[in-house]
Design goal:
With 81 residues, the protein is of the alpha+beta class. Helix content is 19%, strand content 36%. It has one domain (2-80): Alpha-Beta Plaits. The model has no long low-confidence stretch (mean pLDDT 96). Keywords: Electron transport, Iron, Iron-sulfur, Metal-binding, Transport.
């Protein structure tokens, strides 16, 4: 499972931070950041979801009010917008 985070879309509500510890607040930017990720395109960061964290990742994506977080299964199919 993979997570993608679009930092440009993020509005800094930080619900993802409360749901999954892979996200943290960046108060200097007023946005969340996805730890241990790499930039895969301009402003979009991705990383693998560790085993045992799948549910937390899904909750983080579902709570984002602007859909800045997307979850993909191992075949690349998008599970959560």
């Amino acid at each position: 499972m993979k997570v993608e985070f679009d930092e440009e879309v993020c509005i800094g509500m930080y619900q993802c931070v409360a749901e999954w510890d892979a996200f943290e607040k960046d108060t200097s930017k007023g946005k969340a950041i996805l730890n241990d990720s790499e930039e895969v395109e301009d402003g979009v960061f991705a990383r693998e979801v560790p085993e045992g964290s799948e549910l937390d990742a899904k909750f983080a994506a579902r709570t984002c009010p602007v859909d800045a977080i997307r979850i993909y299964d191992d075949d690349g199919e998008q599970l959560i917008p």
